[in-house]
Amino acid sequence: MASIKDVAAEAGVSVATVSRALNGHPSVSEDARRRVSAAVERLGYRPNAVARSLRTDQTRTLGLVISDVMNPYFTELARSVEEEARALGYSVIIGNADERPDLQDHHVTTLLDRRIDGLLVSPTDGGSPGMLGAARAGTPMVFVDRWIPGVDVPVVRSDGRDAVRDLVAHLYALGHRRLAIIAGPAATTTGRERVDAFREALGAYGLDLPDAYIGQGDFQADSGRRVTEGFLDLAEPPEAVFAADNLMALGALDALRARGLRVPDDIALAAFDDIPWFVHTDPPVTAVAQPTRELGRAAVRALVDRIEGRPGESVTLPARLVVRRSCGEPVSPEPPQSPSPVRRSTP
Amino acid sequence: MASIKDVAAEAGVSVATVSRALNGHPSVSEDARRRVSAAVERLGYRPNAVARSLRTDQTRTLGLVISDVMNPYFTELARSVEEEARALGYSVIIGNADERPDLQDHHVTTLLDRRIDGLLVSPTDGGSPGMLGAARAGTPMVFVDRWIPGVDVPVVRSDGRDAVRDLVAHLYALGHRRLAIIAGPAATTTGRERVDAFREALGAYGLDLPDAYIGQGDFQADSGRRVTEGFLDLAEPPEAVFAADNLMALGALDALRARGLRVPDDIALAAFDDIPWFVHTDPPVTAVAQPTRELGRAAVRALVDRIEGRPGESVTLPARLVVRRSCGEPVSPEPPQSPSPVRRSTP
DNA sequence: ATCCTCCGTGTAATCGATTCCACGAGGAGG
DNA sequence: CCTCCTCGTGGAATCGATTACACGGAGGAT
Predict the structure, then answer these.
(1) Is B78 in a helix, a strand, or coil?
(2) Structural domains in chain B plus CATH codes
(3) Fewer C-beta neighbours within 10 Å, C or N terminus of chain B?
(4) Could you report the per-residue pLDDT of A316-345, keeping only the tens digit for each?
(5) Least confident range of A24-33, A268-277, A321-330, B333-342
(6) Region (Disordered): which ranges (chains A, B) (predicted)?
(7) d(Cα B172, Cα B178) in Å, to the nearest integer?
(8) From B106, B114, B253, residue closest to A49, measured CB to CB
(9) Which chain A residue shows the shortest CA-CA distance from B133?
(10) How far apart are CA B238 and CA A215, in angstroms?
(11) What tens digit of pLDDT does each residue of B165-182 get?
(12) Contact in structure between B163 and B151 (CB atoms under 8 Å)
């Protein structure tokens, strides 16, 4: 592979001039510029990004450590992150943690060793030593989707509280009273928040959320299956099940089908995170949709701000309820705008 | 960030000794080794992978340029690639080409600039200049899923011919005679092969595949929708539609639903590439399943073989038909093993 | 004519690792 | 006691870029 020296020799100038010509430095004569371009062309020269990174101490690369790539929500997030990063002149290296803290740590370490310019993380747990160390050491960092309380890092996420309230209103209107939730891991913020939002919304209707109706899942399909089976074995099974992510909803659907139960006639189902396939499941699944694309873009912008010395702010975007048929036939033809009886201030 | 010099100073030895100690070189005294470890520990030192790569001319990184990450098939492929690579001590940088040749080229170039050790590609088109150049220049490279004829690079893929024959047999047994296909881009091998396999299987039943029953798609949901609408507008619409990938099947499902058609009663549907969601669509979709995980692993092994100087062989794995309800009720309780009347030699 | 600026260019230091080569100490063998 | 190895170690070159600094020449001001 041709190096800058070869180009210099070919163009009959010094490496310094080649470098300057290539980087658009002003003080290079038109003549030199042309000869360099010609030499580059002839040799098929491409600058070695590794050498450049070593010298400049920047890789123009972002690390993205994601909880689970197989989850369509995160796939879409990853995609929008890459898009926005590319638009800003950065590459992205994705690490898939598979909801495993040890893998998450492995990726964080590897990315840091590669001297990425900044790190985007949706933490699997309360924070591995490697990650906390990086945050403390001042590596530009932004949490996306999930975050770790007490760590001073901008957070880009979506707030599902209103949408969950809309969902409970929707379920209530359809006559459901015994509502259960398949929760995510308590170690994650999204795991806890969604349960809290659900309980709070229930409270507004005078319903409570007994422990038996809180199933502990791990954001994977299998756990959705297992928890749902537990619900069905209860003396008084729930009338509606809310899965805290789309994969667990898939598992729940599996379990219900295995028992020969019909949705929504025998039991209602809703999910957090909307995905294209929910339109085509049997029945189409009512879900809380996050503005995934915007989340990814906002996260990248916040991170690049940090990298380039600007503040880099936290962003919270609202989620919204998408009503389909899995909780019962929609009551009215128009989508419920905000049917909750307990209004929040909405200026 | 602490460098090897800091470690050397802290341990009271030279940088050469630190390097040797860290890389398990034999001729380092037990004493020096201990002092280096202690210094590393105290400083929280991590070797700079960028500097190491520059010197050793290897990054221990693989590039994966994928046609479309949002396609669950490719997501799973990417995941298994990363897993196997990690097991072999490599990292993976994924580039999403989004079925766009220009983006594919962008990623290939970027990855090459970063001096990745090897490249895994599922080409979007007939081969962009950058990619062909890399192949010619001797960059270790392996094609996965799709390939480019005439380029001397190992190919890891799955052969759907038998499975497509099984599918046609299945459709025939259910009484369908007018069979159409939503094809992938003719520029891709998988796009062409699946049509060829389909036509060949049809031939075995004395059926032919008129041009009107070959819809030109691009492996994206929208094209599946569009092509399906075209089929339905025909004077004699097909009785069964075979989508050459899962996303186009999703689009087809959309279009059918929009027209108020029932699957499989009004029209049958099948897809290439099986995904978890097909179990839960309405109706569950009959599909040709590729051994995706094995494909990813085999591809990485072939590539690493090349990188490390071993031959690196092409691999072709068989796909298999998974019958569900979207083509009609399965005729027999047992899965069709190979119901095709035209037997191939199967020793 | 002299001095000062500015412009274009080249030389060389630098980034953080790996690794070739040389060197001194110590042990074995003659 | 001398020579020859072996072992552990350090000095310095090297990878391919960027960039501070120096320098020569041209042109303008005095």
Answers:
(1) helix
(2) 4-47 (1.10.260.40), 59-157+292-317 (3.40.50.2300), 159-291 (3.40.50.2300)
(3) C
(4) 999 999 999 999 976 554 444 444 333 333
(5) B333-342
(6) 326-347
(7) 9
(8) B114
(9) A44
(10) 46
(11) 999 999 999 999 999 999
(12) no
